Amino acid sequence: MLRKSTTIEFYRPTCQLKDIVLSQWFESACCMCILVNAAVLARAADYAAQNLDSPTTSELEALEKGFAAFYLVELTLRLMVHRKLFFCGADWR
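^ that's the sequence the OP posted. Answer follows.
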């Protein structure tokens, strides 16, 4: 008699996804995004200081949402590849 498996299948990343997330290109893209985000934040702070009645623009808000979306995708991809080791792996020492 065959028994039905009760184990839960977890997502296992494909080699392509793992190769992408661990690549130097992905790391460089994430670092570049952080640097550009810092520049945008500096510009937003300068604009807010000069325009106290209207401290932001729709363009700056759109950029902030774009950066948040990028960081969400980055975090999701890293969690899919590293799983629980993302929180307690060797890089956290």
